[in-house]
Structures are given as structure tokens and as C-alpha cells.
Amino acid sequence: MNTTGWLKGLEVTTGGTGIVSHAGVALLRALADRTGLTGGLSRALASDRLLVHDRGRVLADLACAIADGGEVISDFRVMADQGGLLGPVASVPTCWRALDEIAAGGQRVAGRIAGAVNAARRSGWAGIEARHGAIPGIAIADKTLAGVICLRLDATVVGCHSDKEGATDRSA
Description:
The chain has six helices and two strands, in the order H-H-H-H-H-H-E-E. With about 170 residues, it is mainly alpha-helical. A two-stranded antiparallel sheet has the order 1-2. The model has no long low-confidence stretch (mean pLDDT about 80).
């Protein structure tokens, strides 16, 4: 479900014009839309009130902001700064209101959100199986493990400096 049409006409080039930072968020956002996560969240968080920003889109965008390195809710504004790429994105106060509404809904709303996430997960796995015939095996050392799902996490150690009292550089 593509509720905003933000992806229509999007083109990725290497020509050096129309450059945006955080462009990788567009792929995560497209994945959320194409697996049905955004639409499922929209249905789970539907309201009779007239809302400028669909709460499913807000929650999916918040997840994208976290995946993009956001650590606090105010980091959500990075997505709004990418209007040329993503189209309209909710403000930080709207994000807070959406989270307050979810919290006020208690277990009933939490269950509907979990259902939307599970449905999107099933859609994603079904897409992988449709493309490959099955979930591909995981190559480990000299063998391939079938029927196993592996999440590979990478990290990069970066040396940093702080003038704060008591701070140390652990890379030395």
C-alpha cells in the first residue's frame, strides 16, 4: 500500500544532481510500503479523527529513522528534511502524539500493531520464497545450512574524541 505516492517517479542516479543525504532510508521506506507494513499499521491505528499524517506512515517512518541511526525522537526530523526524496513527513510533535495515542490504546492497539508487523514479515518471506523457490541456505564455513534464517550484523569501530572530563579514547 502506497498511501502517499512518495515513491512514484523516484530515480536513483550517479550523475551528481538532486543529491540527498540519508537516501538509504528510501529503500527501507519502500520495503515497508511494499511488504504491506505501512498499510497494515495504518489499518491498525485507524482513527475516526481527521488526521493530516496517517499514523501508520508515522510509525513506519519512525522505524526508518531508527534504522538510519536515530537515537531520540527528535532525530525524526532528519526524515522531514528529506522532503524532496520522501515527500511530506510528520513533524516531531506529531510523532510524539502518535506514540501517545498508541500508548493510550494499551494491549488492544499493541496486538493490532503486532498483527500488522507479522503480516508484513510473512509477505517479505513469501517474496523471498517466490524469487528463490525457498529461503536460501546460509553458507557457514564449508557447508550450507538449510532451513535456517541468519541475521548478519556488522559494526565499525570508530575512534572518537571528547573534551568531556573523564572521557577516554578507547581506540588508542
